[in-house]
Design a protein that fits this description.
Blueprint: E1 2-7, E2 14-16, E3 33-34, H1 35-49, E4 61-67, E5 78-82, E6 91-94, E7 97-101, E8 114-120, H2 128-140, H3 164-180, H4 185-188, H5 195-202, E9 205-210, E10 215-217
Helix pairs in contact: 2-3
């Protein structure tokens, strides 16, 4: 289901550890900077401090990373994948076909209801404020019911509401409020570094890489 992998600065190549037996997170280690472990700890603090995100149980959010296809500033920086259909249903229709989603479980047996992925190195090449806002942006997509579905705003643009600009401003405000609560600097200090600097000071960057689940037709 998952394996450890790292991103090499010189070659830009992904080196995967392959399939591995489930282990406790503290039993896993990589030589270098464990991005997904650090990001998971950061997200845990964010949902603990932010009342609007208190419904999120991070043990059921699989934090992972994916390699950006091109080393450009433009493009996808992160994404959140719901593991359920509308209303938390285990199956739903896409066109005429009904599907269910392949279920995934963490090393301690918790079922993942969401996958939260960051595109490297592109995400790390954002500035500090952009990185923090991106994290809040993705966490905000998680349904207040924490049922595996997305947070759905009224209208056609249910993911970001009717105004993308207003949505982004709201996420910036959430990030500022979190910083105003004085979380430990050690949780987020790595966000001040771009990919090249982090690689130069910490070595290879990587962590747990989760496979994207499959849609399984059921009729």
């Amino acid at each position: 289901m998952d394996g450890l992998s790292t991103l090499d600065q010189d070659k830009g190549a992904t080196m995967q550890g392959g399939n591995m037996r489930p282990q406790r997170p503290e039993e896993r280690s990589i030589a270098g900077f464990h991005f997904t472990q650090r990001m998971g700890a950061l997200c845990e603090d964010i949902v603990d401090r932010c009342p609007d995100l208190a419904h999120i149980r991070m043990q059921q959010v699989g934090v992972t990373w994916t390699q950006a296809r091109k080393r450009t500033a433009h493009g996808l920086h992160a994404w959140l994948l719901p593991m359920r259909f509308r209303g938390g249903a285990l199956d739903g229709r896409i066109g005429r076909q009904r599907y269910t989603v392949q279920r995934m479980f963490g090393p301690l047996g918790h079922e993942y209801l969401y996958l939260l992925a960051f595109c490297l190195p592109r995400f790390l090449d954002l500035n500090f404020g952009e990185k923090l806002t991106t994290i809040f942006h993705e966490l905000w997509h998680i349904s207040p019911d924490f049922d595996g579905d997305l947070r759905r705003h009224p209208g056609r643009c249910y993911a970001h509401s009717s105004s993308q600009l207003a949505y982004d401003q709201q996420m910036k405000q959430q990030a500022r409020q979190w910083l105003d609560d004085h979380p430990p600097i050690a949780l987020y200090d790595f966000l001040h570094l771009d990919f090249a600097t982090l690689y130069r000071t910490q070595g290879r960057i990587g962590g747990v890489k989760l496979r994207r689940p499959k849609l399984i037709p059921i009729d």
